[in-house]
Write a structure and sequence with these properties.
63% helix, 5 strands, elongated, five-stranded antiparallel sheet, 262 residues
């Protein structure tokens, strides 16, 4: 494998990595994660409040137990995580997770913004796939120098558009999630939350998109300057060749005119 082909394959690697990160982020549900306070399930035969029998109790330990259940300790923290498509949390009193659609949680007036965010993520993936196909065709087939210039220019434009779309989509999702934390249903609102690994992958894909765009633009600019320099270097030689050609033609004409007329 020659050096140029190896360099082209290395240029394809960050595009594939950005595409993989974006696909993993969109398909997962760990954009945001945290904890939610849930009432502790009651044991059979026990009451959720203090029992009163006229101020007298026969069982002091039971009184302590009842008082303990009325404080903050009667709540337990369940972990949850949410993404573009669904929100999942630990099930109360059983193993596993309980999931529901994220669209059913957010306020009704934010439904359109969520779909805009999802649409921007899908367009971002489509643009990255197109860039990967263009770079792959340059690696697989031998094309002219002018075709490679067009590929680099197209990849630079497509990847910067993909990066901008992903940035807008991430910011819209962050806004939607923060609004849902404040205005969402009571049985979902988290007590604490933070960004998850899917969110980090999504922003990593954005960084790779912008890096690939800058690299492609640098390749295009360098190749364009090299092509221009070769054109400039070829012009003087062309002028000299034309001067010799026209000089020879002029001498031949003069000699013909000097011939005696028969």
């Amino acid at each position: 494998m020659d050096r140029a082909r190896r360099r082209q394959m290395l240029g394809l690697l960050p595009v594939g990595l950005a595409l993989a990160c974006s696909l993993a982020a969109v398909g997962s549900s760990h954009w945001c994660q945290g904890t939610r306070r849930v009432t502790k399930p009651l044991s059979p035969g026990r009451l959720p409040c203090i029992r009163s029998d006229g101020g007298r109790r026969d069982n002091a330990s039971q009184a302590v137990q009842d008082i303990w259940e009325t404080g903050d300790d009667k709540f337990i923290l369940h972990r949850f995580h949410a993404g573009l498509w669904q929100s999942c949390e630990e099930s109360v009193g059983s193993t596993g997770e309980k999931c529901r659609s994220f669209q059913s949680i957010i306020p009704a007036e934010e439904q359109g913004v969520l779909w805009l965010s999802i649409g921007a993520e899908i367009m971002n993936i489509f643009l990255m796939m197109t860039s990967a196909i263009l770079l792959g065709s340059r690696v697989s087939y031998h094309h002219s120098h002018f075709h490679q210039l067009k590929v680099d220019a197209s990849v630079a434009i497509l990847m910067v558009l993909a990066g901008l779309l992903s940035m807008v989509a991430h910011m819209m999702y962050t806004t939607i999630f923060q609004i849902t934390v404040n205005l969402g249903p009571e049985d979902w609102r988290p007590q604490t939350w933070d960004y998850g690994w899917s969110y980090c992958l999504a922003w990593g894909s954005f960084a790779l998109c912008m890096t690939v765009s800058v690299m492609a633009m640098n390749r295009y600019t360098a190749a364009r300057l090299e092509f221009t320099e070769k054109q400039k270097a070829g012009k003087p030689g062309t002028r000299v060749h034309n001067a010799h050609l026209w000089g020879g033609i002029h001498k031949a004409v003069v000699q013909v005119n000097l011939l005696p007329t028969i």
